[in-house]
Write the structure tokens for this entry.
Amino acid sequence: MIRANDPKLKSWVPVPENSDFPIQNLPLGIIKVNDKHHVASRIGDYVIDLAVLNRSGLLGVDFVQRVFESEHINDCIGLGKSLMRDLRSRLSRLLDDKHTDLASDEDLRKRCLIPIRDVEVCMPLDIRNYTDFYSSIEHATNVGTMFRDPENALLPNWKHIPIGYHGRASSIILSGTPVKRPKGQLKGKDDAVPVYGPTKQLDFELEMAFVTCKSNDLGNTISTDETEEYIFGMVLFNDWSARDIQSWEYVPLGPFLAKSFASSISAWVVNLDALKPFRVEGPTQDPKPLPYLQFTGQHNYDICLDVYIESPMFIPAKIVHSNYKYMYWNMAQQLAHHASNGCNIQVGDLYASGTISGPIRDSFGSMLELTWRGTDPIKMPDGSERKFIQDRDKVIMHAYAKNDDVRIGFGEVITEIKPAD
Ligand code: MN
């Protein structure tokens, strides 16, 4: 039992009902205070400045100050799983209502506990490498049915190997950052030659991503049992996609410019420890994967995933309710597979799940699937229709794990689409 997960813990910091950030969460992120970046945690509608808290001595003596006075959380999480568990546990003690060290020190409390509306929340990670998997069987089946052949929707390799591709790290942006409609080569089915212009099929992909906190040397592999030492935590992830660019460019080497213009992440990286109460069994894998992909324990998580569209014409309308638990290939398998050729994993890498779709239409994680490639548009509250995402639409994603005792959330990923130049 991880003490910081105890559902009975209550904080002296007020936490609104249904907040994503109760005392049992305590994620990590980056804030900007007086023009300086600090590592921070979050509780309710407050951030906790860990640079200030550590300097006070209250956190304990083992943490090097410079890892908290940093533009990103990489050096902090790079201290490793056990120190990060320690950090969360000490933070939990300082914030619970049975301990008054911090609560009673008014000066320190005011300096390190700041209302979130008074700080700038920044990009948490310096992302070195970004990989996107394709691990939802429902999503792969839907896409295979639409683009290829309903009789053979899954390609023969799909149930043997966690399919993925190396994505672009430099264009991963923080929630709240607008995205300009990308341009690219487009070629309709009946067009003789392609044209260059703004995408007409801009889409979101509802995904989650895990962040690594440990590196392996080039040439070394990682077993599924070892993967948890490498995975610090998770974020919510919107992998923006331009379907018309994608369908023209993706053969034979896979996704390229249809994906690399932007992907949006949530601001707070949730420690995998905090998600422990929500571990569940994954789908049965048949055929049995190769030995290096077999695993022990539960590696799927019951995390609700919602997507809304908002526009200048209407308030947010929910269009998707899915769940991370549907994932066919789990994080342990994805990471073990990624390193199975000796590829070196690094601290701060981001590994995205691929679009997460469930079994029914309402749980499909992209417009491509929801509108069946535009053939069955969604009605919006103002009477308009959406086949794909329009200029000035905002796409809002939420992720949260919830049981009778506690709700561990990821906050939101919100992105407004600006018109192309
Ligand atoms: Mn994707």
